[in-house]
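--- STAGE predict ---
source: upstream dedup step, 1 unique chain passed
mode: sequence only
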Amino acid sequence: MNDAGRPRRAAEPDDVPQTPVGPSRAAEDVDRTVIRNEPFSLPEDTFRSPGSSAARRPPAPARTTAPTDSWFRPAAPSEPEGSVSPEEPAAPDTGRTATSAAPGAAARAAAPDPDDEHPRRHLRSSLLLTLASAVLPGSGLLGAPQRGLKILGGATALASIAAAAFVGYFALTDLPRVARIAGNEAFLNRATWALVLIAAVWVGLIALTQIVTRPEGLRGGKRILGAVVVTALAFGVAAPTAVAARYSRDTSMALDAILKNKDDIKANNQPTIGTGADPWADQARVNILLLGGDGDAGRAEQVAKYSIRTDTIMVASIDTRTGDTTLIQIPRNVQYTPFPKGSEMAESFPDGFRGDGDAGEWYINTIWQHVELDYPDLMAGSTYRGADALKQGVEGVTGLEINQFVLLNIDGLSALIDAMGGVTVNINEKLAIGGDTAKNVKPKSYLEPGPDQHLNGYNAMWYARSRYNTNDYNRMARQSCLIDAIVDQANPQTLLTNFEPIIKASADMLATDITDDQLGAYIDLAFRVKDKGTIKRLVFSNGKNGYSYNDPDFTKMRAVVADAIAAAPSAKPTTAKPKPTTTGKAPASPTAKATTEASQGGTPDSPKSTKPSESPEGVQDVGDACAWQGEG
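--- STAGE serialize ---
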């Protein structure tokens, strides 16, 4: 059989003539493959026919494969053949098969990846910006990527700084004005909701700062860390703001309980209080009746049956320009109390306050309860009938027009002192706690003498009330010392640190005909008394200043009061002009000289007469009278 009838097979690669490879090139190929991990390759023309077009094309550049120092990570570019790395000596060629890493690979593997460090730096910056928004609302948004959020953050931060500067400026330069605003019930109601809104917005700014500034793709612990920081900062901001809102609400409720609207109060001799920069510009002097009622829990049944007995009666006569104050203390057992001519009480009691039964039932301290219980037609138009009747009685004793009253409940005053953290006084004699000489009941214990005695509310009340081993007049003097100590120690720090209990105690202790619209003016006046004024006291004790239990000389008592007012450095005598009364004859337009002579029991030519600038008998500076009198 010849070849013509045999089927032809396709040409195989082996049929192509091979270009012989020399021994040196074969060794080089083996070296690249084994030692340097380079893939083995043959020349492109190895499998090409000599006459093919591919064989006639110029040879393509040799393709090389980047060496690797591991299966997955490419190695650094190899050094030129025969060169030596400066860091490492050239490795001897041992001729063995090796897969060692390229020089410097271990150092690169040990170094941290910059891509991992960047998110940590970004999270730290985000947390710091979040903290900034907690310190100054919105300031952290200045680091936000969006321009609109930057503007929002800047505007919020500037507004916060401006508000803080505004409040701080007035707090430092005009604290009475701040206190007046804070005592406005309508303002307090608005402030409560405003503080709640401020807290919500502030917390929202903190959360927004964290959300927009944190890096993307946070997982696990980093995301939890951000949430914890936001929660802690939000609580730190919201908690004090919520406390301030509660304080505002509590104060508003207390004022609403204590002070009535001006349209709901009907009372005699209301003062003239303006609405300008100085509300007292048209009222040179204001006279406030301060009463201590015995309507405590221990006498609840007696109060329900017999109304209130005002065992403490004093007048605070205040110069509205300077704050200089004279406390005039009236014994609770004054008999035959006179009333000003033409007054409603004078018509019912033309010979002074007296009636059937025991004389002790007709002392000045029973006027309130008698009018409330036994004389329903007296002072019928007044909101506090007993108080207005007592005002007229005190007016008859002192010659002063009594403008308004404040009744302090004994239990409430004790709670107020406890809320203040106690009060410090000097105790100059041993004072009994409890005891009753009439019933032969021994005291439970005693307050021992000593300087700077810090008393709680219970002991402070016995300091002011004790008379088991002293007399009623000594007790009145101690009451003025207690009032002076409370005024002196009721500073802003005490009020702020004990705010809630003070507000609660105040709501329980007061009854007054001062109205809510007058509170701001009285706050301003209280600052004048505390910061600029002096406090003096005039005590009517048995046998002094015209007072005698059996036969009080009301004419002389009114003259002493007029002189005590006129003797004040800045007093205006016309404001203390005594009024005619139903008993006794008050001197008309007394001069300081005449009233001083009357108070001393002398005449113009008598050696007992004194200079007008000298204080009459019994008038003392409260600070001096209440000082420690024991051995130094």
